[in-house]
Design brief:
About 35% of the residues lie in helices and about 25% in strands. It has ten helices and 16 strands. The strands form three sheets. A nine-stranded mixed beta sheet has the order 7-6-1-11-12-13-14-15-16, with helices on both faces. Strands 2, 5, 8, 9 and 10 form a five-stranded mixed beta sheet that branches. Strands 3-4 form a two-stranded antiparallel sheet. Helix 4 packs parallel to helix 5 and helix 9 packs across helix 10. The longest helix is centred in the last third of the chain and has 16 residues. The chain is globular, with a radius of gyration of 20 Å.
Length: about 350
């Protein structure tokens, strides 16, 4: 891809409206100064003194953060948070982002806010060291009364946006946003609006999703194909075209250090090798950066290969940002592509 073509694609971003539907969670970072460690007089155990607390939107919020970094004109988070302090922090983290429209993000007392609390030991001259996380999740099925507004939002937004991204972050089925009711509604929209890119990604795998654009990693693809083994990259590439033909939608598979592959419903396949690693890396958030860049590029008229090239470069930018779940701007992506 040359500079002119990249500029043409990314130049469309400011005119795009994209919805992100799914499990928005709060990433709360507790920065600990190891030089200030004390011992509790009461318990005799170590006391980690927190010198800074920062919070950002995670899960589906990581996709949203990447869309913001790309300069997407208007972004609609669709989901919910709890009526709690973490929910307040999450709403603040989302609403302060440029171009974010909070009209379809709901607060409910029936759910607690999905939170990843990440203690970080801060070291001079080297990356932060993440300690054991403290997570807050929901362990019961999401009530239909909480899901109904999400379904209505999907229906309304389907005629207003140029793309929709679905992300299921929860590990326990039916406890998040993308429950059966919402997945069914999204599948109906995908069937009715063939021109509208609707991309789905799930930590649980996509077997329980209706046909639409699928994005997954190699292990998830292997499970979808009926094997417990993670297929080698060349096997994924060989099988991808036929899978996309049967699904009748594009399919994308991330291949970790081997790159990224995609296929169209006509069976055509493209593979992009990963870019070289430049020092220490942190892979957290790379997959979400891929999702955000794929859907943005496709909505802007990019070809399959162009979308893969942009998303692959964005992932390379993100993995080199340590101690945070990073994003990639068009300028950073262009530099990574060498254009």
């Amino acid at each position: 891809m040359n500079r002119q073509r990249f500029s043409t694609i990314t130049g469309c971003y400011a005119k795009l409206r994209i919805a992100v539907v799914g499990d928005f969670c709060l990433d709360r970072y507790l920065e600990i100064d190891p030089a200030r460690q004390e011992t509790s007089l009461e318990t005799g155990r170590a006391v980690h003194n927190v010198i800074n607390v920062r919070a950002q939107a995670g899960g589906a919020g990581t996709i949203l953060n990447n869309l913001v970094a790309l300069g997407i004109g208007e972004i609609f988070p669709v989901g919910f948070c709890g009526d709690d302090g973490e929910g307040y922090e999450l709403q603040c983290a989302l609403s302060r982002q440029k171009g974010v429209n909070m009209r379809f993000f709901f607060k409910t007392p029936l759910r607690r806010t999905f939170t990843y609390c990440k203690p970080l030991l801060m070291h001079q001259g080297r990356p932060p060291e993440e300690l054991e996380r403290l997570d807050s999740k929901n362990w019961s099925p999401t009530p239909d009364s909480v899901l109904s507004p999400v379904v209505k939002a999907l229906e309304e937004l389907s005629t207003q946006v140029q793309a929709i991204v679905l992300l299921e972050q929860v590990d326990l089925p039916e406890t998040g946003v993308l429950c059966r009711l919402v997945r069914h509604a999204a599948g109906q929209l995908a069937a009715r609006h063939a021109h509208l890119p609707i991309l789905a990604d799930s930590r649980q795998g996509l077997r329980h999703f209706p046909p639409m654009i699928y994005k997954m990693n190699a292990r998830e693809f292997g499970r979808l194909m009926g094997t417990t083994e993670t297929p080698a990259p060349n096997i994924v590439v060989q099988m991808l075209g036929e899978f996309a033909r049967k699904l009748r939608y594009p399919v994308f598979v991330t291949l970790a250090e081997h790159g990224l592959a995609g296929a169209l419903p006509d069976g055509s396949i493209e593979y992009i090798p990963a870019l070289p690693v430049r020092g220490p890396i942190d892979i957290v958030g790379a997959g979400d950066a891929v999702s955000a860049n794929l859907v943005s590029a496709l909505a802007a008229g990019a070809s399959l290969r162009e979308a893969l090239e942009i998303a692959n470069a964005a992932a390379s930018v993100v993995i080199h940002k340590l101690g945070t779940t990073g994003t990639a701007t068009p300028t950073e992506i262009a530099e990574c592509l060498g254009i």
